[in-house]
Design a protein that fits this description.
alpha+beta, Catalase HpII,  Chain A, domain 1, ten-stranded antiparallel β-sheet, 9 helices, 31% helix, 23% strand, binds protoporphyrin IX containing FE, Catalase, heme binding, Catalase_core, Catalase-related peroxidase, metal-binding
């Protein structure tokens, strides 16, 4: 699904433009599960991505366009009292990551994307492993997989409507899901960054840190760039591939750094609703520095076969009750299964 025609046809209907963009990134089909109000299966979800974006063998079914990165995470030890995970002990852990844009089309134009993403696999010297996939928006448009199914069905109608005029599906969705307006407003207030290097990336969902005595603290995390945020320039909106090119140019000057910051929830803060941010006065702890030293094409780079499953967590980090997490884990596994099989068939000449 190309987002550019959608933007043009949608014209002044900014709500539809921005939601249409994220819907492109998280598209489901009209799966039976969604229609019946039950959890959609991973198969239905991934079939849905293919229905919206077309089938692109060997590529991720969402966030298909991206680049592999490598480097390390240098923990300063500040989170060690809160979590027994080895990654938070002071010292360095290896990182293989991926920077991407949403959507299932690997040839999508960068200029049409208003959300950037960063996925990390962090492996400690002791072998503990933490995977996280983050977006440049701190909230998500919907709070449940069922609502996501509805939104994506609506976005599909809106996409079809680019050909036939009007967007009744998305208008109807916005009426029944007013929570999605928060995400829409956030995108309007925060133009996308001019590069991969100068965006912040957020866990969106809440997680729990578990200390050595078994005490749990609800948290969210983000990485804040050392590079100064600048908004996308007008000329970039017409540029298909500036993100990877810009990152390669930036890395020629030296490593790119982000500070990892953990936000501590207070009792009563909701942990099962990714459409809501916590109040701004919550305690924030800088827990270390993410350093990206190198980028490589995803086609044969070290991130190619990794599934950045948000539930692949080390001892000391646990999931929250956010219902998006299980749906994501299942869908990422199904997408991974399909693309790795396709690679194998291609390699075998079948
Ligand atoms: C129920 C909600 C969601 C579903 C069904 C979903 C689905 C998917 C799928 C199928 C992939 C491709 C996985 C692969 O082939 O390895 C993917 C990638 C990704 N998703 Fe989601 N997603 C959801 C929510 C989110 C949220 C809330 C975030 C932000 C925190 C997010 C961030 C990402 C990122 C960064 C990637 C790219 C990972 C990589 O580089 O391999 N997703 N998503």
């Amino acid at each position: 699904m190309s987002r550019l025609p959608f933007r043009i046809v949608a014209g002044g209907a900014l709500t539809v433009v921005t939601l249409g963009s994220i819907a492109g990134a998280y598209a489901y089909s009209h799966g039976l599960g969604g229609l019946l109000g039950t959890q959609p299966s991973a198969n239905q979800i991934v079939d849905g991505f293919e229905a919206v974006s077309g089938k692109h063998p060997g590529f991720r079914r969402n966030h298909a366009k991206g680049v592999c990165v490598t480097g390390y995470f240098d923990s300063n030890g500040n989170a060690a009292p809160l979590s027994r995970a080895g990654v938070f002990a002071a010292g360095k852990s290896q990182v293989v990551g991926r920077l991407s844009i949403g959507g299932g089309n690997p040839a999508q134009a960068d200029g049409a994307s208003n959300v950037r993403s960063l996925a990390l696999r962090i492996v400690t010297p002791g072998g503990g492993e933490w995977r996280t996939a983050m977006n440049s928006a701190p909230i998500f448009p919907v709070r449940s997989p069922e609502a996501l199914v509805e939104m994506l069905a609506a976005s599909r109608q809106a996409h079809d409507a680019t050909t036939y005029g009007g967007n009744p599906g998305m208008d109807a969705f916005m009426k029944t899901h007013p929570e999605a307006a928060r995400f829409d407003q956030w995108l309007r207030d925060h133009p996308p960054s001019s590069g991969f290097d100068n965006a912040a990336y957020y866990s969106v969902s809440a997680f729990r840190l578990i200390d050595r005595d078994g005490h749990a603290q609800d948290v969210r995390w983000r990485v804040e760039p050392d590079d100064t945020y600048t908004p996308l320039a007008d000329a970039q909106t017409h540029d298909t591939d500036f993100l990877e090119r810009g990152l390669a140019e930036r890395l020629r000057q030296g490593p790119v750094r982000w500070h990892m910051v953990i936000t501590l929830a207070q009792p009563g803060d909701v942990t099962n609703d990714a459409t809501r941010q916590w109040p701004a006065n919550r305690t924030q702890i800088d827990v270390g520095t993410l350093v990206v030293q190198r980028e490589e094409p995803q086609i044969d780079g070290p991130c190619r076969d990794i599934s950045f499953d948000p539930l692949k967590l080390p001892d000391g980090i646990a999931p929250s009750d956010d219902p998006l997490l299980k749906a994501r884990s299942a869908a990422y596994a199904e997408s991974h299964e399909r693309r790795v099989h396709e690679e194998q068939r291609y390699a075998a000449g079948k």
